[in-house]
Amino acid sequence: MFRLPDSWLWDFWLARDEQTYHLFFLYASRALHEPDRRHLRAAVGHAVSTDLVHWERVADAIVRDDAPAFDHTATWTGSVVRGPDGSWSMFYTGTVRHEDGTLHQQVGRAVSTDLYHWLKDPRNPLVRADSRWYETLGGAAPWADEHWRDPWVFADPDGDGWHMLITGRANHGPLDERGVVAHARSADLADWQVGPPLSGPDGGFGQMEVFQVENVDGRWVLIFNCLDGEFSAARARAGGPGGIWVAGAASALGPYDIAGATLLSDDRYYVGKLVRDPDGHWVLLAFVNKDENGAFVGDLSDPMPVGWDADRLVLRPAG
């Protein structure tokens, strides 16, 4: 387990360069005392490992910028990909808190040649919510924020550029079911075009956070995260906790079976990420969300094996 003695760690994303895993993570000082205060003080830390268990912290990746920058309140969750020229692009969420307390979320990019030294793109933000399809700032309570965050970027499986999956909310449908898989695409990782969502506002989630799409042993899956209290009323009546969810997918771009999504882990863990370990086996990393008393923890888990149980992806016992 990776623990910061002076800070909480929560959302994270990974990149692998040869035998080294690079962990980028949100963190904020434990001196805040109240974990809910951490979000608006988040910076992006960095650690490296060769086994996903033992981590060495290195210099931070990025921090918030000065006002009026799009990320002058906090830097939030993202992803890292390597372009055809060998350089790395980190796509991340920039957050601005307005005087009325609402949060404006947009997506920007930082670039690096070595994963250690990052420069923000001067054109930031690069990807904004489009009101033709998505809620923007000032929606109905309790969804008044502009939910446009957690970019997951991946190469098109057929070689046709790049795709970005984004946490967003549709601009129509029941308020408690508007969580959708927002989508943008690019030919070059620099210029992005936002398009309609890849799912409808009918899956039973008010929001779906931190997407990841992977092909696990020949089957496509969509990983996302949602806590209880953020479900639709119908899903809430069915009972059970929130946590890390997995939905079946026909392809990397869907269709996704959001309505049929099942829990990969309950809310003891959150923001799950599938990754291949050094032996090539699929494992799940997540941040430790709650202890046995329900208190926030804020550490990174050790790898947890995953596998298929009939048509359901599940956690396997370690060893």
TrEMBL record:
Gene3D superfamilies associated with the record: Glycosyl hydrolase domain, family 43
Keywords, ordered alphabetically: Glycosidase, Hydrolase
Domain Glycosyl hydrolase family 32 N-terminal residues, every copy: 18-222
EC assignment: 3.2.1.26
Keyword Hydrolase attributed: yes
Keyword Transmembrane helix: no
One MF annotation (Gene Ontology) recorded for this entry: beta-fructofuranosidase activity
A GO BP entry: carbohydrate metabolic process
Classification via InterPro entries: GH32_Enzymes, Glyco_hydro_32, Glyco_hydro_32_N, Glyco_hydro_beta-prop_sf
Database matches in PANTHER family: BETA-FRUCTOSIDASE
Family: Belongs to the glycosyl hydrolase 32 family.
Name of this protein: beta-fructofuranosidase
Species for this entry: Nakamurella multipartita (strain ATCC 700099 / DSM 44233 / CIP 104796 / JCM 9543 / NBRC 105858 / Y-104) (Microsphaera multipartita)
